[in-house]
Amino acid sequence: MSRSYYSENAEKFFQEDPNSILGKLLQNDPYSTLQTQKNAWRVQIDILQKELNRIPIDRILFEYTIPRMGRRVDNVVFYKGVVYLLEFKVGEDNYKNTDLKQAEGYALDLKYFQEGSRNCKLVPILICTEAGNYQNKIEMEGDVCRPLRTNTLNLLHVILQASKEFNEPDIDSVSWENSLYNPTPTIIEAGQALYANHKVDEITRHDSVGRTFTQTSQAIDKIITESKRDSKKSIIFLTGIPGSGKTLVGLDVASRYQNVDDKEHSVYVCGTSALIHVIQEALVRDRYSKLKGTDDEETKENIKKNVEVLFQIILHYRKSVITEDAPPHERIVVFDEAQRMWDQHEADKNIRLLGLPPRGKSEPDLLIEHMDKLDDWAVILCLLGGGQEINKGEDGLIEWLKSIKNNFPHWNVFGAPEISTKEYLGDIPADEALDLVNKTFIDELHLKTSTRSFKAENFSKMINHLLDRETKQVKEIVKEFNEKEDKEKYHLLITRDLQTAKDWVKKKVRGNERCGIFTTALSHRLWPEGIVKRGQREFNELGWWLDDEEHIDSSLALEIPCTEFFSQGLELDWSIFGWDACLRPNDTDWDYQRFERSKWKKITNETKRKYLKNAFRVLLTRARQGMIIFVPKGDENDKSRLPKLYDGIYNDLKNMGISEI
């Protein structure tokens, strides 16, 4: 499939009739092209043919695809070994910050994920046709220039001025255009792309990690096909380290299996309401903006109704399961964050809140029972994170296995050998937990490599070593990070000053990248430092994850921290983690503490200790490119924040080899 709507060498482009070029653009556009877009293309063609025919450019592309972002670069021009990315805003008389971020975002995406751009200089240029002249300055960071600005009359001048700064070897533009693309989309980007009917291979890597993803999807497809063919009921446990792509697999399955006529209808349900709320809102905003002004324009309300059919919150799905006697409409259910399902006690407690009598069943009991009403085949796909149970009544994989063993032994169980490890079973012996009649181990049902931290695939492993107090292993991985070139490495730092941390992440954020502050729900004594968490009713999860820095409750404003309850399954590029005295290192393990009014108290309950440790695991693995850990200095005059409570934490992290600023 062509990456561009139009791709031609310079000589032919300058000689070709503008109407012919426009015709090719329209022919390759899969959407119903608006008159405004046609007019914009006419303007672009006119400007480019007039401005660029005086320099020996090599090739020009129109509408070059950026699959991960679900967008296309207006034009790509190759000149003297440098790639110029042109973003046109026809009729615009102002260089808007959002447009500059868009242009820079294209360049960063290509730099990070496209093989052809790995060793190239990339220069994004925002062209606002009616804007005034702008005094540009060439600022390169990691081979990507800060976006330049120009108008209709100055494009040639800007490119010539920029070219004086470079001395690069020639680029094979055809090879560049078709070079391997290995994206690692955020969950929000992946959801938007899949919902817009992009194929999953367009937005995933094509290296060894990408092949693993494909093999996992194929293994799941095979189980679904065989379950349907043989009229079997199957439950699949897909496991993996944080950021390995479990949610992306689930979104892919849910979006592909939507054939009601062939009885292959699926639904995606999430145990973390924040994740599903953010995905739903992101899909609504994205689709609304794409359709606005077209013949297919829809209201946000109508789009939201359609989105909510496919992507459901466990709270609403659970209510329908409890209150409806009829068999479900869907044959395939994807449960994301399936480790967060309730045990019997917590399930009954929440059923009472609905005004209904308790059922005496765990949440997995209720959900499997619902799918078991189907007369022939059904598939449940559970996406499980190990060591990520963070709330009361969540017992991870164990609750699912107990339910199958005691109540649904006729269901076929599929999982990777990793489900028999302590990470998923805790202290329950594997022989006891997995004493199931119909179980099959498939290696491909475990995702071993993190794609979230695309600059450090073993970052999640390092965090696990850190929380397990395995200092030697942590030091080895941190040393690997520090030895890489600055533009290639995952950035991991510590500081005692919050403003230093904020200045650092602000400097790092470019284009459409996001940053934010995280801290645990038990971080009560970071309040004097300015890190004040909000409760469930006060925290605006949609604004925090999706809005820009002009909103004070956006992550980008760096004012309001996000806790573990609003972040599972989601990620951003750069993070600050506020480490309070609730988790302090000792010689062999951790001291687990919670603050109550005037003093710290030990947490002795093993389950609550596990939840606190898992909260740290979740929050320390949210950043894709870099994280700075803030440990306050404390205050000698405040017994709840004595320096000795924090110095041990800071010194321990520093001893791991983490650099301080």
Please tell me about this protein's structure.
With 661 residues, the chain is an alpha/beta fold. The protein folds into 3 domains: 6-177, no CATH class; 187-447, no CATH class; 459-660. The chain contains 23 helices and 25 strands. The strands form 5 sheets. Strands 9, 10, 11, 12, 13, 14, 15, 16 and 17 form a 9-stranded mixed sheet that branches. The protein has a 6-stranded mixed sheet with strand order 1-2-3-4-5-8, with helices on both faces. A hairpin with a 2-residue loop joins strand 3 and strand 4 (82-89). Helix 7 crosses helix 10 and helix 18 (459-467) packs antiparallel against helix 19 (471-483).
Biggest sheet features: 9 strands, mixed
Q: How many structural domains are formed by the residues?
A: 3
Overall pLDDT metric = 88
Number of strands: 25
The parts where pLDDT drops under 50 for at least 5 residues are none
Structural class: alpha/beta
The 3D shape can be described as globular
The helical percent reads 25-40%
Distance between the termini: 47 Å
- Characterize the quaternary organization of these chains: single chain
Tally of helical runs: 23
Output the radius of gyration. Answer: 26 Å
Q: In percent terms, what proportion of residues is strand?
A: 15-25%
What distinguishing features does this structure have?
661 residues; alpha/beta; 3 domains; nine-stranded mixed β-sheet; globular
